Amino acid sequence: MTTAVDDAGSRMSAFIRDPYPTLARIREASPVSLVAYGEGVSVWLVTRYQDVRAALVDPRFGQDVRRSQAIAAKAGGGITLGSDVVHMLNSDPPDHTRLRRLIQGVFTRKRVDAMRPMVERIAGGLLDGLRERQQVDLVADFAFPLPIMIICELLGFPPEDLHSYRTWSTAILTRGSGMSFEQATAEMKTYLHELMTARRATPRDDILTDLAQARDAGELSEQEVFSMVFLLLIGGHETTVNLLGTSTLALLHHPDQLAWLRANRGAMPMAVDEFLRYESPVSMATMRFTTEPVTVSGVEIPADELVLLSLGGANRDPARFDDPDRLILDRDDPGHLAFGQGLHRCLGSFLGKLEGEVALSGLLDRFTGIELAADEATLPWRNTIMLRGLESLPVTLRG
């Protein structure tokens, strides 16, 4: 079956605003569908939970972005997959194994648990600032600065440059941002080179110093250091920005669930898992390709084909979750795929959950009332099928 998912006009706008009806139709029609991805390029889209979960751990679905780019180039269309920035998320073993081993110790559950005071300090300071204002943009004033300040503290990046980080991230991940992917990565490289030079002269207790020392020891190339920082800086905040914005909007849509959460504050960890399932911050997993013919629920995908795995579609699959289009905070089912699965499971999943728990708890602690302060039809969503997040969320805060 071939399903047309256009990249232009009202159809794409509707999909960006609410992808779930389209994903449901695709999921019900066939386990795998061939869809348009850019001009002249088609990819195979997998949307059912069982199939997506299996594909996430199947080594026959490669993730080396250089090979994905070569397949896309052969098909024509001129799409750019970022093959000049190779990191853990878009590489395969042995590169993936080596790169992940160098950094994974920072994000273990034990290390992340020790970060709670830092997360609470930063969240508390931001929330205190919101108390002085009746109406705020929850994305710009809270959801964005919280995770970017945390990852900058871990990396050792100057917090006064937050605007630059956001500009680069937006250009790299979304369409029509006003800055090209190439310009954003070039500016990031220049900026990082200056910071690395400073760290070599004056080491600190931060990830950037560790990476500089790994580079000098021959464990990483200069390009790999950049790619690692690229992934940590962008991946380390984008998902949490999306999680906090969509979670708040979901609570406004479900006042009964908001009341339940206020009355059951100890259930926040379980609630965050449901927020992650209901609106997966990463809607599509990183582009994959078939290293050989692969059969998915009776449909054969030939070798050297591009494949997208819909995490958002899988997490709304009624074959896996009862009443999947409804937010149920006491669902107590952590089986969502929002963080992926297998070798490439999100390295920062523990930190992302901690940020979500602390941020949403703090929001409910400080404000007795939260109301949408804009026409919901006008709320801007991130202009990408890969991420699911709001660009802004005007709210009125009381209490």
Pick out the low-confidence regions. Answer: 1-8
Main beta-sheet annotation: 5 strands, mixed
Look at the structure and give the mean pLDDT. Answer: 91
Helix count, per DSSP? 17
The CATH topology assignment is Cytochrome p450
- Give the overall shape, derived from the CA principal axes: globular
CATH class: Mainly Alpha
* Oligomer kind: single chain
Helix-residue proportion: 40-55%
The total of beta strands comes to 10
Label the structural class.
alpha+beta
| Through-space gap between termini | 53 Å
The sequence of SSEs as H and E is HHEEHEHHHHEHHHHHHHHEEEEHHEE
Number of domains: 1
What is the second-level CATH architecture? Orthogonal Bundle
Kindly list the characteristics that best describe this protein.
single chain, 399 residues, alpha+beta, Cytochrome p450, five-stranded mixed sheet, three-stranded antiparallel sheet, 17 helices, disordered N terminus
What can you see in these coordinates?
- The protein has 399 residues and is α+β, with helices and mostly antiparallel strands.
- It has a single domain (9-398), classed as Cytochrome p450 (Orthogonal Bundle), CATH 1.10.630.10.
- It contains 17 helices and 10 strands.
- Strands 1-2-8-5-3 form a 5-stranded mixed β-sheet, sandwiched between helices. Strands 4-10-9 form a 3-stranded antiparallel β-sheet.
- The longest helix has 32 residues, at 222-253.
- It is globular and about 60 Å long.
- Mean pLDDT is 91; it is low at 1-8.
